[in-house]
Specification:
Layout: H1 2-30, E1 41-43, E2 46-47, H2 53-60, E3 68-73, E4 76-81, E5 86-89, H3 91-100, H4 107-119, E6 122-124, E7 128-130, H5 132-146, E8 154-158, E9 161-165, E10 171-173, H6 175-187, E11 194-195, E12 198-200, H7 207-218, E13 224-229, E14 232-236, H8 238-244, H9 253-267, E15 275-279, E16 282-287, E17 292-295, H10 297-313, E18 318-322, E19 325-328, E20 344-352, H11 358-369, E21 374-376, E22 381-383, H12 384-388, E23 399-404, E24 407-412, H13 416-430, E25 434-436, E26 467-469, E27 476-483, E28 488-495, E29 500-504, E30 508-513, E31 519-527, E32 531-535, E33 540-551, E34 554-565, E35 571-577
Amino acid sequence: MVKNKKTFTNRRKLLNIIVMTLVSFVGLITIPFLNKIYPNIYIAGSYVGDKNKDQAISEIKNIKIPEEINLNFKSGAKKLSTRDFITNVNYEKSVERAYNLTNSGNLFLDTYNKLKLIYKPINLGLLIDFDDKKIDEALLILSSKEGQKPVQPSAKIVNNSVEVNSGQNGIVIDVNKVTSDFKENIYYAKDEGIEIDFVETNDALSNEESEKFRQTAQKVVGKKLELKNDFDIITIDQNTLLSFLSPREGFNRESIEKEIANIARKVNRNPQDSVFIIENGVVREFTPSKNGITVNEDKLVEEIEKYTKKLSDEEAKSYTFDLPIITSAPKIKTEDVNNLGINTLLGKGVSYYKGSISNRIYNINLAQSKFKGILVPAGETFSFNSVLGDVSSYTGYKAAYVIKDGRTVLGDGGGVCQVSTTLFRAALSAGLPIIERRPHSYRVGYYEQGFAPGLDATVFYPTTDFKFKNDTPAYILIQPTIDTANYTLTFEIYGTSDGRVATTTKPVITSSTAPPPDLYVDDPTLPAGTTRQIEHKAYGARVVFDYKVVRNGEELINQKFVSNYRPWGAVYLRGTANQ
């Protein structure tokens, strides 16, 4: 036992002597190459051994990188320009790597490499940066021409059922291998062609995968997500939800990010400073301060995936959640520039009037301008007709179609009810008491663009009015905005929040009646012999919704709105003007 231990110790000593002798020998032969690159080292075929770093850099800058590489397809060679994909050639780092091969600071590793270089030269490539995205794009284009383009699996909703297209495998360039070969030619400055290999993609779903995808997709049919942002609701419908699902489990992140980019374009805004100018008791210029808003896209991806999964796993038809945003404050806030207590947006109403004739659009624009900057003191009742005044050709209104005595007739001021309807919606949103409101005689298509029936308010000066009361603790400011390019009218009501929360239930049609025959109305503004549809058939209906306002647990308003609409046939304008 003692003898074996002694033998082992002697062998270990001998090995140490051999190693130290070898290291010393290598050290002696290395002395002439101090601060130089060790012999037998090349960079892209150019000899840099025995040179210092500056000499080596000068040497490799003469290396001719091929300007084109041939990609050899069965149909023939395609040239790929290298200059389109190289972003940087790092000569300094290439030389540093060659130098550090035997000067890393690790004694044994450096000794090993020096010994190896005595027997075998090494050729290092240039260190080059590439635009990988451009390479992929170029190869995909070539692949689509030379191979067979894959068909991605997809799904669509038809009659409340999901139909799945299983997709089709493609024959495409082996992008990873070709990219590797392409780069290697450039690294080593080789002007050699690349033999192109094709591979079959794995895009098509099996029958089992198709059925599993169909079952998952079916669970989002008829469902939606609603994203709240102040008084706006952004709806993600069933078709968009369907696009979020990956055919092979999980989510299609690209589709989700595309939808989020669309949302961000609509929502994102810079901070807005406030402007507030009063003349003769009317606010002539008003720009409310607004925080800058940026959609928190990473958080929104998480929320969308979470709630889409919940819709897929549960019976719920919809989920509503707050749009995650990042805010930035303006320099001048609304409360800094007025002493009337107007410091926040209380409510907002929107309506659309696409399809209106030019005279109706003109009247909407004129009527809404009367309400710009109107102040309503605390405790006072606002009258729409008092602000609007006389509606006739004498006050600038043009002839358009109005509902009078249950009929659509040509009269001055057609379109004014678009304004009263929109303000009614804003007052509901702000939680204000509605003192007087009357629905139209029949359902009007303009007021159901994006809305259920029952959210309209008709006016007819001076007999039929729309009124609400300002029961807030301060002045309120009415601010309309019209977007004639997108046929949108918006009313905003600003004031002091007292913590009230307003809710309106979705209008419910409790009974309906079939429409009568079509109606034709002579129109002297249209050429004789032409017709134009201005109203579509509408069923008569009784529509009900509840309006509640609560503040700190106290119920301020509990009101039921009932609208009785008579049935109405399609209305056509029949031209009578002589050409």
